[in-house]
Amino acid sequence: MNRNLAHMLTHSEGRYFSELEEEQLRGYAAGLQQRLEILDAAERAEDALLAEMDRFMREKFPEMATEHGEDSYDRAKRDYAMAYRYASLATLMRDPDFVNEKLAVWLRSILFALTNRERTLTCFEHFLGLVERTLPDPDAAELVPHLEVVVEEMRRALGRPSERKAA
After folding, report:
1. Which of 24, 26, 42, 103 is the one with CA 20 to 30 A from 48?
2. pLDDT tens per residue across span 62-104
3. CA-to-CA distance for 30 and 52, rounded, in angstroms?
4. Measured between alpha carbons, how far is 45 from 144 in angstroms, rounded to an integer?
5. Which helix (H) or strand (E) holds 163?
6. Nearest CA among 118, 93, 106, 92 for reference residue 149
7. What is the pTM of this model?
């Protein structure tokens, strides 16, 4: 659930909702069906996205298997799947901070442990573009900003300038 709504529900114990609180609840509920459909579309697209990432990594970075073991591609796909699923959940919850708090900072610490950080960023940027091109426009427009949080956190970790589009 959106943390603002959770906070509101927690602090409303023993009283009725104010008009503003009711309006916030209605707004959240009004788009819930659409957000569930986006989540379903994201789930349907996941296997194809991850298969394409596997192909991309093996083609562009064949040295990964030698440097980190043959299962390095599977471990990387696990990371893309995790970022994608967290972005999908953030879309469902309408919570812009969810991905950053639950995943991006963790990925930043993992990034520092990796030997080829630029390669990791390149792959995540490719994944972001792939999601933008694969999901239908309205779904991508809702989900991609949450995935961009991960890419931006990686750029920040590498001291690279933000490429995020101004809202």
Report:
1. 103
2. 999 998 888 989 999 998 999 999 999 999 998 888 888 887 6
3. 34
4. 14
5. none
6. 106
7. 0.86
